[in-house]
Sequence to fold (581 residues):
Amino acid sequence: MAAIAALQAYSSGDSNSDDSDSDTKEETKPVSVTHLTPLEKGETVRSLQSRFRLNAAPIVESKESVDTVQHIDPTKKEVMYNPQYDQMFAPQVGPVNPFKTRQQIAAKNTLAGYAEPAHYNAFTFETQRRTFTSYGYALDPTVDGRGLEGSQYVGKVETAEETDGRTVFESTKARVGDKRKKVKASDPSDIDGYEGPWAKYVDEKRNVKPSAEEQEELDEILAKRNKRGRQTDEKPGEEKTTLHIKDAYDYQGRSYLHIPQDLEVDLRADEPPEKCYIPKKHIHTWTGHTKGVAAIRLFPKSGHLLLSCGMDTKIKIWEFYNERRVLRTFLGHKQAVRDACFNNDGTKFLSAGYDKYIKLWDTETGQCISRFTNRKVPYCIKFNPDEEKQNLFVAGMSDKKIIQWDVNSGEIVQEYDRHLGAVNTITFVDDSRRFVSTSDDKSLRVWEWDIPVDFKYIAEPSMHSMPSVTLSPNGKWLGCQSMDNQIVIFSAQNRFKLNRKKIFKGHMVAGYACQVDFSPDMSYVVSGDADGKLNVWDWKSTKLYSKLKAHDGVCIGCIWHLHETSKVITCGWDGLIKLWD
Fold:
């Protein structure tokens, strides 16, 4: 304002400059520059201040009316005050983005534009969408002014007509996979009628008693079962034998039990081979069993004969050398044969079958000498290796007992009843004065012969069931096939301590009683596995040296020949017996 006043004074001064005197010039000095002139005589600063007083509220004239509307940002989703109607619906003001098209500037809530919710709400749309997904039809949403809205369908129109256009939220015919509905009684305040999660199904029938016709059928079935059970209890399987060779005796009258002496190997030797080697190739297959082979046993001391127990109820004797023929078949069990065991001289052997019978056979003639049973399934059998006690044998039964029989009298002379599960193996140690048993109760027990109380009980939380146990050739170690896929070694002398340095891993045997064996010189450990492979470990380092694919099914048994450096026999559930060298 001071500048404007100065300009006005300057213009008025110019117009009167010629006519005015010097006195009038002093009077018309602009106020804005008065403070720059020196003070005249008699003037003070206070007199100067009185002339310059500020106007705190000057009169200002507005050129246009003030906008009193509080504008709202159109992009805001929330307003923190109560706007008036005019403010809410006022047109947008401000500069327009010149780089956007009209379509981009337009308000939209979908990619295609702005869709206003009309009569079709979200629930109705979702219902029709689900109905189309499940049943293949939905209401036609087209609105064309013909007045047919809500009566036409798209998709499978025939199905819609059959079901009267029912949606997924309405009851239709039951489909495969639909859940059964339960009776709704979920009010806990109703003490008598509350069923909660235990409510029965709507269409559930709880008939305890069978109808008259069903009862007659059940009586017939039970009568047949009882008759069958009595027959098996009363009559054991009839024993037969078949000789498969013509020359049962040689020119000197010797049978196949005679140990051959025309071989490169001395089968009468007591000492094992000096050094053994890992078997590498398959050289022979014995075929004859129609089902899986459960166990194989070599003839004692010499190993020139091989005994096999089959799940086809047959027991066969084979030649190990020369032509490797099948010599004799023993028939007498009604069900699969589980185990077999020779006596010390090999003239007799025992067989245990799932028909609950143990039978004693003559190896040479094939005659069944006697049979034993206690109405339970025998899982393992062993003759007492002591020469003076060849008339006694023990059997591990399915009823948790170890039964001792006398062959001469045919009677039970002792029972060892301490296990808590079915007995799987029996192994004689310490010059036949003791024997070790393993069971499904995951324990190992050591017994004195003829004393029915175990003097050693080994069971640890980390132990698993051990369904196969083999004594090493030097009589110092017990190789146990553990169900946690490893072979563990126990000392067979005095303390029966677990050797934690000798653990053989790398095979899969969980669930199968695969046999373990040692090489005669204690260099290697061999075992089958569930994949049908023959595994060979080094005894000293416990390293897995080789894996041979031996059988299609489970390789359940393997034996290293007593007098051979690298010959191993395996049997499997494919019904084959194979020789490896």
